[in-house]
Amino acid sequence: MGTTLFFLIGVLLVTDSAWTQSVRQPYDVYEPEDWSVHDFSCPSECFCPPSFPTALYCENRGLKEIPAIPSRIWYLYLENNLIETIPEKPLVNATQLRWINLNKNKITNYGIERGALSQLKKLLFLFLEDNELEEVPSPLPRSLEQLQLARNKVSRIPQGTFSNLENLTLLDLQHNKLLDSAFQRDTFKGLKNLMQLNMAKNALRSMPPRLPANTMQLFLDNNSIEGIPENYFNVIPKVAFLRLNHNKISDAGLPSRGFDASSILDLQLSHNRLTKFPRISARLQHLHLDHNKIKSVNVTMICPTPTTLHAEQDVFLHGPQLSYLRLDGNEIKPPIPMDLMTCFKLLQAVIV
After folding, report:
1. How far are the Cα atoms of 63, 141, 142, 159, 168 from residue 163, in angstroms, in the given order?
2. CB of 94 within 8 A of CB of 69?
3. pLDDT tens-place string over residues 256-298
4. 3-state DSSP call for residue 180?
5. What is the pTM of this model?
6. Which residues are within 8 A (CB) of 274 and not within 5 positions of it... i.e. 6 or more apart?
7. 3-state SS class at 152
């Protein structure tokens, strides 16, 4: 038991390590050493901290336009203003930009001049949350690693939008107006290194098609998804975290093998329409099934079974290795069998 537990903890640590090492953190970039070639001017509308010469703070100032950005700037903060457009001219000298935060403005697709963003050849992080976008902006720089578009009005993804974004690791499209019709089979083509995809709080009825093979985190909460196609996870063999809370998934909507053949470590299916406990993988660690209509649970489906090959050998555990389980809000009625209750206690399961 101890050996198995340490192995599973190791799997989680390796997975977490791989994720944090692969997705660059916001300030995980190197400062230039030679400042003699850079302009140290500061737009009058903004603040340039002497101790942080690569940053330009222009947030919360009621700005309606982007000021001219000096060439030395790496980090540009323009959030919570009244900006409606992104023209090319004020960014023409900003060749060192790595980070732009334009959250909480009034930017529309028509207001983004073609080439304004794609000219920023070193840009890594682009934040455009809480704006007025109706489609994913394009073209974008090939260097981009994170694209944050939450809480817009996005309902369209033009063909070829992601075709050159092979460095993108995180795409956040949550809380938009995406329908199933927004996706083609090649919509995500080009996203060779995408690891996290968030499309929660949209209007999807089906799972998005042909996701990038390296996807590790897939968040689809608060849609109207009714089922998961057969062999869906064959295309995304590395997915480890899957969230499908608050959808309309029924027993008939699950693949015949359930999640038995997947690589998922954390599976969330809360607030759906399940009446049966789904088949799960032996690798699964965290399982959220609360607020469904499940009436009974077979102990062999959630707890490992100890077996021995020979009397003198160690005990091996076969079957699920869950460490967390939620079943509250279902229709499981007492009395609960003793072996199942023992299993629940071992898992510290939430059942009521």
Report:
1. 33, 11, 9, 9, 11
2. yes
3. 888 887 799 999 999 999 999 999 988 899 999 999 999 988 8
4. helix
5. 0.86
6. 249, 250, 251, 254, 289, 292, 293, 294
7. coil
